[in-house]
Amino acid sequence: MEPTIHPGPRDTSVLTLQAEHRSEDVWGGGMDRLLTCREHVLGLGEWVIHDRVLEFVRLAGFYGVHRLVGGGLALDRSLITALIERWRQETHTFHLAVGEATITLQDVAVLLGLRVHGAPVTGDGTGVWSALVEELLGIRPEPGDDGKPVLQGSSLRMTWLRRHFSQGPPDDAADIVYESSSTCH
């Protein structure tokens, strides 16, 4: 005899958005398709970081992120769809057959190889983003050739970054040039 898996929460008092949740359609037989996944790393294309710059990316502790973004990560659309069907916005957890699970800061740190010890970096998010980009990267973001803004809130278009920073420093440049380039790549 096969075990019966309950299609929804046993106690609906917490999951107040159940009626609008994708799982209602799935369990009702109305939805059996994969979701469309957007990949925001497409703007990187074949952007290769120079080996000498990559050394400083490693020293800065961002090599795991580089591998994730620059390594041609293949998305498992079926897995993403399954996780979305089980994600609960009300509790910020996944409801699985074995119980509830969530993603912790430690999970992200392990997967990306990022350090999460020390004081948190906080702020109110109301800074002048174009001035910060100019301070950190040495160039102020201007509107793109297509007229679309390069900077929207705190989001910077990858195509702009690629246009301005895809060429690494010359091979005979001093290490200090490569070290400063690692903040741009």
Helix content: 25-40%
Largest sheet: 3 strands, antiparallel
How big a fraction of the residues is strand?
5-15%
- Report the total helices: 8
Structural class: mainly alpha
Which oligomeric form is depicted? single chain
SSE sequence, one letter per element: HHHHEEEHHEEHH
Question: Which sequence of strands runs across the widest sheet?
Answer: 1-2-3
The whole-angstrom Rg is 22 Å
Roughly how many Å apart are the termini?
56 Å
Q: Write down how many β-strands occur, each being a DSSP E stretch of 2 or more residues.
A: 5
Which consecutive residue ranges, at least 5 long each, have pLDDT under 50? Answer: none
Shape: elongated
Mean pLDDT: 75
Q: Notable features of this structure?
A:
185 residues, mainly alpha, three-stranded antiparallel β-sheet, 8 helices, 7% strand, AminoTfrase-like_pln_mobile, MAIN-like, Serine/threonine-protein phosphatase 7 long form homolog
Explained architecture:
- Pfam families: PMD.
- InterPro entries: AminoTfrase-like_pln_mobile, MAIN-like.
- Residues 61-168 form the Aminotransferase-like plant mobile domain.
- This protein is mainly alpha-helical and 185 residues long.
- The chain is built from 8 helices and 5 strands; from the N terminus they run ααααβββααββαα.
- The chain has helices spanning 22-27, 51-59, 63-70, 77-86, 105-112, 129-137, 158-165, 175-181; strands spanning 87-88, 93-96, 99-101, 151-152, 155-156.
- The strands form 2 sheets. The protein has a 3-stranded antiparallel β-sheet. Strands 4-5 form a two-stranded antiparallel ribbon.
- α2 (51-59) packs across α8.
- The longest helix has 10 residues, at 77-86.
- The protein is elongated and about 70 Å long.
